[in-house]
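Consider the following input, taken from an annotated entry for (Z)-3-hexen-1-ol acetyltransferase (Cardamine amara subsp. amara).
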Amino acid sequence: MELQISPLTTSGSLTFKVNRQKPELVSPAKPTPRELKLLSDIDDQGGLRFHIPTIFFYRHSPTAYSDPVTVVRRALAETLVYYYPFAGRLREGRNRKLAVDCTGEGVLFIEADADVTLVEFEEKDALRPPFPCFEELLFDVEGSSEMLNTPLLLMQVTRLKCGGFIIAVRFNHQMTDGVGLSFFLKTMSELARGSDAPTVSPVWERHLLSARVPARVTHAHREYDEPAAVEGSGDEDTLVTRSFFFGDAEMSAIRKLLPPNLINRSTDIEKLTSFLWRYRTVALRADPNKEMRLMLVVSARSKLKNPPLPKGYYGNAFAFPVAIATAKELTEKPLEFVLRLVKEAKSSVTEEYMRSLADLMVTKGRPSFSSDGAYLISDVRIFADNDFGIWGKPVYGGIGKARVADFPGASDYVSFEKRNGEIGIIVPVCLPEKAMGRFVEELDGVFVFNGGSKGPNKLITSSM
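Applying the prediction step yields:
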């Protein structure tokens, strides 16, 4: 049965139709254990109860004689043999504790065709968030976005009329983080290329990040502060998303805003994060005394030593350390001040911090992070290497939207290569329309004044 979708138009004027087959369940290719597996206390915190959409664009290969839908569907079924908890369903027990019922029912899979070419995406500058017709390239099957008792992964493979294709994946964040998903996708790509087994075997072992007995909260964890009363900002207009490119010229301009002694002791990601937090705050025009927050997604995999996490651990293994300053401090003090806050927050994640975080979850009812005045940044450049053999690496591989569920204040770093061969980072940003205008003006002023690329070349795309 085929579902016809009417023509869809975006702000980039790219119009196309998507014909979708009826969603199906793909189950493991072989029988798998039927058991109940507890999530860790890092996995089942309230702030991770949402699904994350990702998307990958692949070019046509003249040597490809296989149907990408068939290849991906088969690889998915084979991957679920190793990652069989993904074929189960989440159940909630006492004290909101989550566990996976490994039923083997499978994950949702959609086969689709679109009457558009990859070149058309590129010509319309539509190969980065916000994507044209994203909701049709990753169709939200009715009921599938619930957290409990529903498939834990949704995948849609859309053939393009040029012979290229798109893989869109939405996964339940309680099950895994970006690193864990990259393990899953790497296994899929290896099996699609003919491997007999994954290079890195998946490891469950969620007890390694469970709370201690007795629980001992030893850190402040201000990212989980009680939410403040929400007041009108006077700038509550339509939200827009725009993606910005940061290459060598832009990073050089940012470095000119910092003292030499700090440049060599900071990574480019730390510099970029500081820059974005500061100028986003300027654009928002928040009350000068308002407390603004920057939350960083910091992996703890290398920090856990007693015991260490196994290489194939695919559960959530990160924290949201927070940097806090008033809007006045962020807008009036030099970028050096902001950068030091970022570095301090990042370095605060230690093994004891993670143990304390797990303990906090069980003692405080698994709270969500505080979103008041918050900006959340994550680095997902790891998705750029998802190679499906004859089709090679994706032209774009990364996050699908510049927001997390209903929280618009989130950005992700995505690896990107422009059509002229320049390599850099794409950062999608979501802001109220007026604030976005000010944000663009601020960035244009910095990059033009400091010798970076001119404004029109920085702004990639937008969507009302």
